[in-house]
Each structure stands twice: as structure tokens, then as C-alpha cells.
Amino acid sequence: MRYSQYFLPTLKENPKEAEIVSHQLMLRAGLIRQTSSGIYAWLPLGYKILKKIMDIVREEQDATGANEMLMPTIQSADLWKESGRYDAYGKEMLRITDRHDREMLFGPTNEEMITDIFKSYIQSYKDLPCNLYHIQWKFRDEIRPRFGVMRGREFLMKDAYSFDMNPDDARYSYQKYFLSYLRTFDRLGVKAIPMKADTGPIGGDLSHEFIILAETGESGVFVDKQWMEQDFTGRSIEYADREGLGKYFDKITDIYAATDEKHDEENCPLAKDQLIEARGIEVGHIFYFGTKYSEPFGAKVTDKDGNLVTLEMGSYGIGVSRVMAAVIEASHDENGIIWPESIAPFDVAVINLKTGDAACDAFCDNLYKTLQKNGKDVLYDDRDIRAGNKFADIDLIGVPWQIIVGPRGVAAGMVEIKNRKTGEKQEAAKDKILDVIG
Ligand code: ATP
Ligand code: MG
Q1: How many angstroms does the Cα of residue 284 sit away from the middle of ligand 1?
Q2: Residue 363 domain-assigned?
Q3: What sign for the dihedral angle of Cα 206, 62, 154, 193?
Q4: Is 0.85 topped by the overall pTM?
């Protein structure tokens, strides 16, 4: 992509309305634009990153064997009356009346709808296990939308649902998702700690929130120091492959981590000096809630002996749009965003220090094409502006590698390569660039 042809409106100053660094940087880097309170348009660069996050989330869901589908944003109130949540959800639910005076709503979540769909088709134990998910916009009329997409009113969620014959199978599904969440966040380049959590209005008795520690986080949390000192994610994935899911799950959930609602000072197993009290951002939440929805909806299947059994269900959410803000909270410096390579909007930026100079232009055009031919997604800064402004913009948007091309280097066939994360710079001959950036 040539920067001169890209819609990438960066801002020099921090917008006054943005209180936390991720919100400031998302506005300044031209990722999002607020269109009304808690509602955002995703500009091209922001949308590009959002799609990368979605792809990773999707790949890991597919790897668990879940089926992707897409349910509508608008739902009928009838389903929610059946589950009893129509009134319970209160003002957070955006209620809509259609032209025939039918009560509709913009879905805040999909347990009711998925249960209704599932029970229409699945009648026998032979069809289980079967898990479904979608990635879809949700609306919650938050009392205090703030921090940009961190707490929006319209936001993108991945929500998955498991259906099993009995509590043991359902717990196995839960453990599978638990592990897949560790993998997902690991690939997204963040450390999300699974914490024992309250189930809230969804109901049920087994639940974990996946939380990224950050001073600006809205949740108070208590975690064992070990979580900070060791990479349990990488090791536990290995461990689960080797020892089996159940054993691994018991072991990892034995390392203390709890949200403040669940933390109980008196019964906490840890000594004071082993416990960290911190703040964090909830990026995922998983629940095993049993028959809370299958019961009222009559979602049953026949078992081997022909008996009807009510389905045991769980649901599994990831805040896809919130994750982007959380990654930025965890990974930035005074110059801007530092994207993990897996979700960076481009692999590499080529910065032409002297646009209009025939030799520099020819060198950069050629380099741009060569990198593309080698499978790199390249942002070529070909704008006719001061070099200092180019450096500032490219640092701000956080591309992992920068290749800086100036007249002196061109004459010698050399470029400068900068690593955004470490700030390290090195000279390289043109044909050695790929050796450096991989
Ligand atoms: P919170 O406690 O932050 O309000 P929640 O517990 O109500 O979230 P869930 O119902 O568990 O949210 O939804 C699944 C995921 O969706 C959350 O873990 C979070 O990452 C994301 N999410 C929830 N509400 C919002 C929101 N208003 N804006 C952006 N993401 C959200
Ligand atoms: Mg939650």
C-alpha cells in the first residue's frame, strides 16, 4: 500500500476526550472514529487490524472443532421472555419496536437464540458433541461508555456455545475452550490470565475471566506472583498435549488468580507476599451454566437408552474489539503503538526520505515490489512531506520493521533498518534486508 493513496488520518495532538493511552493512540493513529457515544467507525487501518484479530480468534475456534455461523444482530423479544431475561437485562438492552409494533432488540448476547436454533435440529446423542460460534456485533447500552472501544456500546464479540449430554462432557468442553483461549491470547501477543470469576446474569457455577493486567483496567484482581514470573501459557499447552486436558486444567487453575468479586481474603490459600493485587482488562469470559437455558427452551436429546435428557450448556466470549485496545495498553511507548507481529497492520514500512528524488523513488519502488513478491505486506511512505513527519507517523502506527531509504544510502546500495519494538537500527545492503526482517 502506498501511503499517499491510503486513508490514514493521523493526529499530532492527543484528543481531549481520550483519558487512557489506548484510546488516545487509536484516535491518533487513525484506527477509529467515534460516530456517537460508545459507537465507532473502523477506519481502514483499524479495520485491517480488527480482521487480523478475528482471523486468529477464528482459527483457534475452528481448531477446537467448533462450527462458525452467523446469527443476526436484531432479535425478537419473545425468545428473551421465554428465558426470563427480557426484564432482568434492564436498561442495558436496546429495545426496538418494528412497524407492526412487534418488540425487537439489538442482541447483547445470544444464549437464547442459539438454544432455540440448536433444539430445532439436534435430537439425538449421536449428534453430540456439537459446538457453534459466531463473530458478531453486540449492543449494550452501557451506562458509562468510555475509554473508546474498551467499553463501547456497539462492540464485536466472538461468542461460542457448547452442548453436551452430561456434566462430565460439558466440563470437558469447558476445559477445551479454556485451553483454546490460552492459545488464542498467546497468538495475539498478550498475557491473559484466567481468573476465577462470578457468572453474573448469565448464571451457572463454573466461570473464568481472561484478564490482561493494566493499571487502567476496570477490574480489581488478585493473582499469584507465579503468574507474572512464568510463562504458563506456553508450558501448559505442552502439558495439556502430554498429560491430557483434565489434569492440566486442575493444575493450572490451582495457581491462584481471582477477580475481586471472587477473591476472599480469609480463605485465600496464598501468603501475603506471594499475592499480587492489581488491575486488569477482561478480554474473555467463559461459563458453564448447565441447563439454565436448555430447561426453559426444552432443549433435549435422547440418550442411548432412548431417555430424554436436557442439554448441558456453556458459553464462551471474547471481546474482539476490546482486545485491540487491551493490546495497545500492554504494548506501546511514548512514540506510539508497538504491535505484536501477529496482528500488526503491515509487516514492514518503507520510508522514502526524499520523495521526488529520481534515484530514491526508483530504489523505493523497486524495494516495495521486491518485498511484496516475497510475501510481505508493505506500507510504502511515498508522501511528499518532511522526513520527521514520516518517522513520527510510522512510529505512531507501530509497524514492526522500518526500512529507511535516503540519497546517501541509495548511492551505496544500503538502507537503514529499524526495529520498532527495540528501537535498534542497523545498516544493511539491499539484498540482505530479508535476512534481517525475516
Ligand atoms: P464487563 O464486565 O467488562 O462489562 P461483561 O462481563 O459484561 O463485561 P461478557 O458478557 O462476559 O461481558 O462478554 C464477553 C466479552 O465481551 C467480555 O469479556 C469483554 O471482553 C467483551 N465486552 C463486554 N462488554 C463490552 C463493552 N461494553 N465493550 C467492549 N467489549 C465488551
Ligand atoms: Mg464477563
Answers
A1: 8
A2: yes
A3: positive
A4: yes
Does ligand 1 come within 6 angstroms of the Cβ of 398? Answer: no
Same domain, 254 and 139: yes
Asked if residue 323 has its Cβ within 6 Å of ligand 1, the reply is: no
Ligand 1 atom nearest residue 108's Cα: 10
Residue recorded with cell 461468542: 159
Q: Is 158 in the pocket of ligand 1 (CB under 6 A)?
A: no
Distances, alpha carbon 202 to alpha carbons 42, 74, 286, 398, in Å: 29, 19, 10, 38
Residues 60, 182: Cα–Cα separation, whole Å: 10
271 and 414 both lie in a single domain: no
Kindly give the distance from the C-alpha atom of residue 283 to the centroid of ligand 2, in angstroms, as a whole number.
8
- Report how far ligand 2's centroid is from the alpha carbon of 106 (Å): 18
Say how many C-beta atoms besides its own lie within 10 A of residue 426's C-beta: 11
Q: What is the CATH number of the domain that holds 427?
A: 3.40.50.800
pLDDT tens digits, the chain, 438 residues: what are they?
999 999 999 999 999 999 999 999 999 999 999 999 999 999 999 999 999 999 999 999 999 999 999 999 999 999 999 999 999 999 999 999 999 999 999 999 999 999 999 999 999 999 999 999 999 999 999 999 999 999 999 999 999 999 999 999 999 999 999 999 999 999 999 999 999 998 766 666 799 999 999 999 999 999 999 998 887 776 667 778 788 888 889 888 999 999 999 998 888 999 999 999 999 999 999 999 999 999 999 999 999 999 999 999 999 999 999 999 999 999 999 999 999 999 999 999 999 999 999 999 999 999 999 999 999 999 999 999 999 999 999 999 999 999 999 999 999 999 999 999 999 999 999 999 999 999
- The verdict on residue 177 lying in a domain is yes
Count of helices and strands (H, E) across the chain: 15, 23
How many distinct structural domains can be found in the chain? 2
| Contact 30 CB / ligand 1 (< 6 Å) | no
Cα dist from 364 to 303, 352, 395, whole Å: 66, 7, 19
Q: Which residues span the domain enclosing 227?
A: 3-337
Grid cell of 157 as nine digits: 464479540
Q: Which residue's CA lies nearest to atom 16 of ligand 1?
A: 319
Answer yes or no: is the C-beta of 322 below 6 A from any ligand 1 atom. yes
